[in-house]
Write a structure and sequence with these properties.
Length: 258
Amino acid sequence: MNVNVDNKTIVVMGVANKRSIAWGIATALYQAGARLIFTYAGERMEKGVRELVDGLEGGKDTYVIPCDVTSDTEIEKCFADIREKYGKIDGIAHCIAFANKEELKGEYLNTNREGFLLAQNISAYSLTAVAKAARDMMNEGGSIVTLTYLGGERVVQNYNVMGVAKASLEASVKYLANDLGPSGIRVNSISAGAIRTLSAKGVGDFNAIRKVFEERAPLRRQVTQEEVGDTALFLFSPLSRGITGENIHVDSGFHILS
Ligand SMILES: CCCCCCc1ccc(Oc2ccc(Oc3cccc(O)n3)cc2)c(O)c1
């Protein structure tokens, strides 16, 4: 049985540049024959995403639209646009998160209310808002995949307010899986190892974590955007049709260590 995504339409939210995990997911899906739609946040992202997508064979007519996930009306408009142009969709890759850089280092205690709510709003609630807007336009067998990190399950120095947001995201995955299961829509997360992306630059001492990772992870090596992409491809394919509410670690086994 092949991965069978060649007749599926999947929305990839959160590509920033070619090092984005979202781009690793997009290229894995693209190579397996899926039809892709991209959303980005912020005008300054448009040019970069458009250029990346145009580089794909047939990318010229791929839909690339803005979607600021802090606005419910914008989410509704974005998915209504997609529905009008493409009909029903089969999947959503939610690769969106943000927290204020000053709160991604030092003590978690210095998190303020505004920063806490911002991280929750963009990095956690946005999955629920997107699932809500898309549920009636997803085909049976649909699949939603989001990205998380070990710091949402246990303390990872400096991850702080984003860790609390990822804990919220991971709990949301389970509650959404429970609600959407009867409609045949699955919801899962991928917990990726420390991959060097534009976002990773915002987390304090990122390089120190990567060093420990290479020295201690069972596979003794970093993971790549492509490896996360392959796991996402599995989660969008019927090969994972029995899996929902799950969090799959693509982290060289690092999460098994104390
Ligand atoms: C100390 C932990 C080291 C490993 C971190 C791995 C990781 C890397 C990137 C991750 O994604 C984000 C996304 C946004 C984010 O917030 C940012 C990023 C850049 C600038 C800024 O002002 N905020 C921080 C991390 C993420 O959730 C997890």
